Structure prediction request, 232 residues.
Amino acid sequence: MPKLQKKILFCLAGVLSFACALSIAAALGKQLWVKGTILCKTAALLVNATEGELHQFVGEIQYGLFFGQRVKQCGLGGRPTTFSFFPDLLNVIPASMHVSVIIFSTALIVFALVGTGFFMFNAFGNPFETLHGPVGLYLWCFVSCSCGCLVLILFSSEVKMHHLSEKIANYKEGSFVFKTHSEQFQTSYWIILVCTLVHIVNVFLIRVAGFDFPFAKSKDLETSSGANDLMY
Prediction:
């Protein structure tokens, strides 16, 4: 492939990687990860509410990785409150899993920026092998993609398997019990998913630029060395 086309592909991959870093950094501090509704089960049972009356006992909840807000509906109007995960909810939520999500999200930003630098270096500089050449580009894309997958898996497990919304809704509630009525992942979560897919796209851009996958290259070297051994 001509050098100009390689530069264009590497520049495109670098721009995509940099855009991912900026998007994840913006998503990290927002409370747009999960949005849902919570049912005040205790109040609904006390008045024996029917399906048509349940909306009077359904509140809202929305949160991110650091803070959020909730509106509790127990039949007497909404009670809006805000909360923060640190340090208030550390004894309620799976703290190790939540901290891991933040760490891997931060690592994803760092590796996306590192990948951006190496893509630009390969486009305009004189890269050498190992971490600076095409093998390094594959490595940074793989690491970034792995971090993105870990963020998605850990956060999904925290929300769905550990019932994070219910634990937040029932925090410091002695007389009422709240149950999750509905919940959906929001913009920040889908940004992580899109950025993970972008790093996979970058892998194929490297391949289109004319550089074989590392494992394919090593396999070719093994077969050629084996043929040389047979000749001698």
Summary: The chain has one domain: 3-219. Confidence is low (pLDDT under 50) at residues 217-232. DSSP finds seven helices and five strands in the chain.
